Amino acid sequence: MKTFRGGFHVPDNKALTAASAIEQMPAVTDYYVSLSQHIGKPAQPVVKAGDEVVEGQLIAQASAFVSANIHSPVCGEVVDIVKRKNAQGALVDAIHIKANGKQDKFAYPPLTDPTPAQIIQRIADAGIVGMGGAGFPTAVKLQPKDPVDVLIINAAECEPYLNCDNRLMIERTEQFLQGVRLIAKAIGVTNVYIGIEANKTEAYDKLLAQEGVISDSKEALANRKESDVVLVQLKAKYPQGAEKTIIKACVNREVPVGGLPAAVGCIVDNVGTAYAVYDAVVNGVPLYRRLMTVSGRGVNAPKNIEVAIGTPLSSVVELCGGLNDRTIKLVSGGPMMGFCLADLEVATTKTDSGFLALTDKEASSVLPTPCINCGRCASVCPMRLMPMYIDFYATVGDTDNAVKYGALNCFECGTCAYVCPAKRPIVQSVRLTKMKAKEKK
Amino acid sequence: MVNYLYSSSPHVKSPRTTRRIMIDVCIALLPACIAGCVLNGIASPLYPEWGWLSFMHLAICCVTCVAAEWIYSLCCRKNFQQILHEFDFTSLVTGLLIGMNLYPTSKWYVGIFASIFAIVIVKMLFGGTGKNIVNPAIAGRIFAFIAFGAAFGGAMFYANPSDNSFVNHITSPISDGIVSGLDAKGNVTGATPLQVLMGGVQNPTNTLTNLDLFLGTGVAGCIGETCKLALIVGGIYLVVRGVLNFRWPLVYIATTGVVSVIIAWIDNVNGYADVNPVTIGMAFDDAIGVFLPSILSGGLILGAIFMATDYVTTPNTKLGNYIYFLLLGIITAVLRKAIHGEAVSFAILIMNLLVPLFDAVIRRRPFGYVKPQRKPRAKKVKADEAVSDEKVIAKEGE
Description:
The complex is a heterodimer of chains A (441) and B (398). Chain A is α/β, with parallel strands linked by helices. Chain A folds into two domains: 1-23 and 109-365, Rossmann fold, CATH 3.40.50.11540; 376-440, no CATH class. In chain A, 27% of the residues lie in helices and 21% in strands. Chain A has 14 helices and 18 strands. Chain A has helices at 116-125, 138-141, 164-171, 173-187, 201-208, 218-222, 243-251, 271-283, 313-319, 376-380, 387-396, 399-404, 415-419, 426-440, and strands spanning 22-24, 30-34, 44-45, 52-53, 58-61, 70-71, 76-85, 91-99, 150-155, 191-197, 213-215, 229-234, 266-270, 289-295, 303-308, 327-332, 339-341, 354-359. In chain A, the strands form four sheets. A six-stranded mixed β-sheet of chain A has the order 1-15-14-18-16-17. Chain A has a five-stranded parallel β-sheet with strand order 11-12-10-9-13, sandwiched between helices. In chain A, a hairpin with a 5-residue loop joins strand 7 (76-85) and strand 8 (91-99). With 398 residues, chain B is mainly α. Chain B has one domain (18-361). Chain B has 17 helices and no strands. The radius of gyration of chain B is 25 Å and the shape is globular. At the A-B interface, strand 16, strand 17, helix 13 and helix 14 of A face helix 1 of B.
């Protein structure tokens, strides 16, 4: 089984929602659609207060090369453009839409047998961004400067608790594969890998049963046809689903420090992204719905739900039976890299793969103690850094030395902080260092 | 309005804490402690009180270490609740180790002073847990060895060379007190088997077998280092619990054994008047017998499993650790040959002091590391490097 060096198997707690089928989120009255749900410039609104919009209508336009369109999740009336808190706690502009109960829908014309340029154009129109969490506009990603020969679909879903990618692969297998082929066509590669963690056996079996999907065993690879997609089973280990580690595991290439995957001829896309591409190209539906896992032992009825983007989290949680009073922490995203929420006054975005309510048994509230130099952080670091030094220098305020030990190469997976017996806030130190280094520049 | 916890990711953390690790180490030390007390009490019928003395030493050291840490913290104006909250059992581990490094015959006050020295001077003054540069227990043992001599016991014995029979006339050079006796088999327990082995003193009554060394039956020595079986059981527990990497003690012990054999081999070869392949071969055959006794005697296994592998005083890189433990083995074997005792503790002390050097010199190759290429342009504009660097950066940014 393929993998990378370092990492740690974090107890995945996926059993909470692994078997629950995707449910549809019923309509609510108020939607708050954020204008910056992606990396890059916030989108420029093209509607104003009082306008009537239909489901799927463009309401904000990409304002730069690295930006993305945003579509209305519902038929209704634009109330206003308001300032709303996002998951990271910053105030951003959001379009407040009040639903009027109509069922009209806007969709782009479906494309049959599209050219690569058409696919990329449609991806840009539909406002598709990387749905694994970073939210990089996919259309930009699919037009790399460097030559690319490999497409890797990141189906590792290494974050504990989350199951939305897993359920999507099980329930919408064919559509997902079609999306994968469309992306491959758009960038013009035939070398397609799907990297999936070994703990998702159901999805693995289901995918392997499909036409044109082969496993990565030697015999299968020897008889490989050009159009075949290679399904690579990866060791269940965090952070297997990080861009750099999944490239290393699937095709054994190391992305250079500070470089993009395209530098080694790879493009990595998420399962959700592939499905969104399918939906946009084949059905013409822009991206305004996504799957998310609502889980954690603080949620009374954990579920995998398809939500409209802009739905307030409080309504989502209500659908899942509300929170019980053992909850001590709210997390948007996975428990390893997700953002902490102060309350539920946050609306869902394109990048929300999950919402977790963690109880005191799950979330750690132990205060840090002095580092005992055990070296566990270094042994699990997928970037092979030495986090103990970064933490030490960041704590004493020596940014230069923290940078010297590679703080800027860290992608904040949090494995070091997870295994640390002294519970050092290593990721926080890294973020502090990055911020200070940015200020210095 | 409910107030929720708010913090940086990750939001889940492993259940393992420093305290948990240190409790595991304490548990791992228990078999050796018990074996030390029992073997010293039962196995030496002439001195049955040794068992109780051993237990007393362990208790004194543990209490002193913990008390020293708490009193030091109180002097630093921490309140007692805070001290209890921060208490992570490291001082208890130090206390147990110092107790295990004493002899049953050591005077009662030796453990107290060694513990205070280890905790206050070696650990707390350097910044407490995780900041000490040498292992406190090793420093405590060496302090006791140097400062108390005969009162410490063990290693300060001397044999009267003119009288080559080891009867129990062996006396301490300082206190003149009898510090050795006869064991169950009627053998002298004065000089440890290791000293006999390494000092080249041929003891006609030394009938200890390797099995005796392994089980600690009838072996003189420190409380904790006699029963190797108990130590190894503790070590296996730590490996199973994921506290200890089994590689490092193995590297250390194996290196010591191999280097001891090599040293004995060279010695043997020098003993032959005529050096030829046959005598070299014979010398090797003789020397190979040193391997097992050299790894089974003395404090090697205790040091290798519990003291040299202390997280705080080992390098942070894998390569660094390999070099560290290899050198440790070599130094131990050479010191044993050179000073006939206290080799393990001094070797660990020396290597502990070198750890910052290892960490400064040996760095890991980060993921995706690219060797910085020399820029030919920077060479030309040597006079104004800063400007040329800026140009390069600007070019890369394009």
